[in-house]
Amino acid sequence: MFDKLKKEHIVAGDDFNRWKVPPASIAIHLCIGSVYAWSIFNPPLIKEFGVVSASSGDWGLQSVVWIFSVAIVFLGLAAAFGGKWLEEVGPRMVGVVAAFCWGGGFIIGGLGIMTHQLWLVYLGYGALGGCGLGLGYVSPVSTLIRWFPDRRGMATGMAIMGFGGGAMIATPIKEGLLSAFYKVPEYLGPESAVNLVTEGGKRMAEVGGQMVEVVVAGAAQVAAAPVPIEEGVYVAGTGNTGAAATFFTLGVAYFIVMIIASFSYRVPREGWLPAGWTPPTADTASKRMITHANVHIDQALKTPQFYLLWIVLCFNVTAGIGVIGVAKTMMTEIFGTTLPFIVNSAFAATYVFMISVFNMCGRFFWASMSDYIGRKNTYYCFFILGIVLYLSIPFAAEQVSINPAVTWLVMFYGATMIIFTMYGGGFATIPAYLADIFGTKYVGGIHGRLLTAWSTAGVLGPLAITQLRQASVTSSIKDLASKVDPAAFQEKFGAGIAQLDQLVAAKTVTIGRLMEIAPAGTVDPTSSLYNTTMYAMAALLAIALVANKLVSPIHEKHHMETQQAGGSEAPSKA
Questions:
Q1: What's this model's pTM, rounded to 2 decimal places?
Q2: How far apart are CA 58 and CA 50, in angstroms?
Q3: Which residues contact 557 (CB under 8 A, 6 or more apart)?
Q4: Counting C-beta atoms within 10 Å of the first and last residue's C-beta, which end of the chain has fewer, N or C?
């Protein structure tokens, strides 16, 4: 049965409509793209027992946030190691395995939630599901490139656009399922009406003659609940967050959709070309750096072009993640104090939604645009325009702190949205860039190995943003402390400026509290906390710009040799 999934059994006839393939690719990417909506699961997972509030037996946030990171790491590993296998067996086999891994990862993760075994959630969603992510991500790429040699960028943009939009669709679905499966715990009454005692740090109450653990829901917990609840005392372990059932439901649904999509995959015969289309002439191809030859996967790793493109992708993604990771916080800190009547919580929420929209649209727009202006020129746009935009953010932040005008908010908003289109566009354009440089025969496998740049950027970006921001916070606090009156400082914080480091570590002293006693006319440095980060991101793009400039056609010694007998190709001996 599995042998029939191999690519030699799914070769389409010349009359096959190639437009039947993109919907299958988009469907798979919409399924696996839901990984970006992982944060929806954090609140229910940290109160599985308490349900309305965390109990003593619940997992801590620090224990569950890394599940997403594990999934992304395994995405990169699976893409790197599974890419070569993809070229051997074809997209249908890989798509089916991805469906089992992604859907099965949810099922195993659901069992882990139901039995409260965190390691099962890591194994299921993190490791197994992450493998499904990697295999599902690369399976459509080489297929679509072969079906659309005339529109390589558009083809890959269509599929990878689905990955960018997966979270946008998955978020309301996940929230709806969690609400549907949510069960309110047993309610004992208002806190004032229940005799509570503390034993070993746990809140306990007598129920049916026995002491049981309880949780207390205040106004914040009532507001966060997915269904209407009352303030008061609830019995731990008697309700249900709905997380396990949501995992089971999504696992089955994703498996079915991905299996159907995988069986819709077909590959063109060797040498097939779209009706009425002729490949570009040698002169045209040379100008746009498009090769007619192919480079073997293993040989690609011996070329400088692979590592230059690795740098191009890694630094483009690092810069984008550097903004995406702090976008909401950055918007609030830069404009929340200067334009509080405009930038409120609702505005920030809409801003985050628009990030997803521009990220998704950028994948299709830039990838399609690359078919007309060329892949190298597209990345020139990313880096040259990106450097200007990243440098404009500190300028807008500085200006709005001096003159709180909406103009600077519009400038910031527009700059970041264009940045998000280029972040998504970088993901969507790189497969076509690889096909132009290395040929289409093994582009899926080469793309898989290049995705290790994504895993690296996923660590490098957040690390850079947090470290640089914290350095700016520390510097700003010291600068403000040097300006305030020591007597006012002593009265405000109950300690002298000499103890500043200890007060900062205890979060007693903050920029906001120092501004309350700062001399009149002191500029609030909060809006400039991200300046260093933006300068660093611009520097990374400058390095990537140089790497893109150095990308050149592959030397013919790396091309595969065509055997006279049988017409098959073998790797070059170089």
A1: 0.75
A2: 7
A3: 572, 574
A4: N
